[in-house]
Amino acid sequence: MVEIGIIGQEKDEQIKLLKKRIEEKGQKTIVIDFRGFPKEKKLFLTEKKIVYDNINLMNINAFYLRQLGYLFPIPPKEITKKEWDSKYKKYMDFVTNERENLSLKHSLIRMLSKEKFVVNPYDSFMYHRLKPFQLYVFMKNNLPVPGFIAGNDLNKIERGKMIYKALGGGIHTSLVNKKFMNENRETFKERPGLFQKYVKGKNIRVYAVGDEVIGAGELVSGPQVDSRIEQKGVKVVKLPENIKEIAVKAKNILGMYFSGIDFMRTKNNRYYLLECNPSPMFYGFEHMTKIPVSGKLAEYLIKNVKR
Questions:
Q1: What is the pLDDT of residues 211-233, one digit of tens each?
Q2: What digits encode the pLDDT tens for the residues 115-151?
Q3: What is the pLDDT of residues 112-121, one digit of tens each?
Q4: For an engineered disulfide with 305, which of 61, 84, 120, 199 has Cβ 3.0 to 4.6 Å away?
């Protein structure tokens, strides 16, 4: 019997489903939830041990990394000098605390990746917040990616022919038209963005683990450019063999063992690669399509443990 560690929040539906699948196969699981760190739970690292909540993680055979945490600075707001002076130390303490907490956790997962089998390795997670670099890597490997411009030079943007995406995620995709430009011109004086050629079609989500494509589905949604805004369901689709090969190649190039790969399929059945997600949600997709994403991921983790 092997033991698989799942790093993330216990209430996460993806984690609960993966835990169930691993245990159905007769193996043990442990969920490592960092929400209690550092106020309630202790963590320490040495060159030989990684101990969290009195559990030596080095004794666990393999890990699935669902969520580790990232630092998001407190957004600024208009306050008086007196208010700022009174809150400055508290703000700086927060930033320092979060920086130190994340340094320890991120060191932990990189250390585990050296000693154990981890899905996905730490470095592959960084691609999720480095979208221009991810697209650059795809293009360098001759994968079918829509052209892009990243930055804040709006003179380079073609209205009606491009969409806007956040460089690091977390913001809905929008069509770049006159209304968008008028509403956001001041925004891009404060931050850059990712502008990509607009490809009209259907959003296709593909799940792959190792060198196997588990399955694919068309995301059925409303008329918005961003299919996440009004998602109505998922329709199972059969992928052409060459697109399966592209999906596997794309995630492998980024060092991902498991990924949710997004494509846009035009009415002429041409596929454009959009991105690879290092920690995709799969609970809803599996529920609607009956494609065994969690079961295949569980099998892969068990098969690849370092004993």
A1: 999 999 999 875 555 555 566 78
A2: 999 999 988 988 888 999 999 999 999 999 999 999 9
A3: 999 999 999 9
A4: 61
Residues contacting 134, CB < 8 A, separation 6+: 127, 254, 275, 276
List the domains of the chain with CATH numbers: 3-119 (3.40.50), 147-197 (no CATH)
Helix runs in the chain, H state only: 13-24, 81-115, 122-125, 131-140, 178-184, 241-253, 283-289, 293-303
Residues 119 and 258 sit within 8 Å (Cβ to Cβ): yes
* pLDDT, position 33: 93
Tell me the mean pLDDT in the region 1-30: 96
pLDDT of 83: 74
Looking at residue 268, what is its pLDDT? 95
Distance CA 251, CA 260 (A): 9
Place of tokens 């369901």: 233
Q: What is the mean pLDDT of residues 279-294?
A: 96
CA distance 171 to 174: 9
CA–centroid distance for 95 within its chain = 23
Question: Which residues lie closer than 8 Å to 153 by C-beta, 6 or more apart?
Answer: none
- d(CA 165, CA 194) in angstroms, rounded, equals 5
Taking alpha carbons only, the member of 216, 226, 228, 207 closest to residue 276 is 207
Residues, the chain: 307
Are 288 and 219 within 8 A, CB to CB?
Answer: no
pLDDT at 72 over 60: no
Asked whether the predicted pLDDT for residue 31 surpasses 90, the reply is yes
Q: Is 210 left (phi over 0), alpha (psi -120 to 50) or beta?
A: left
Q: What is the DSSP string of 194-208?
A: EEEE---SEEEEEEE
| Residue type, position 267, single letter | K
Contact 125, 279 (CB under 8 A): yes
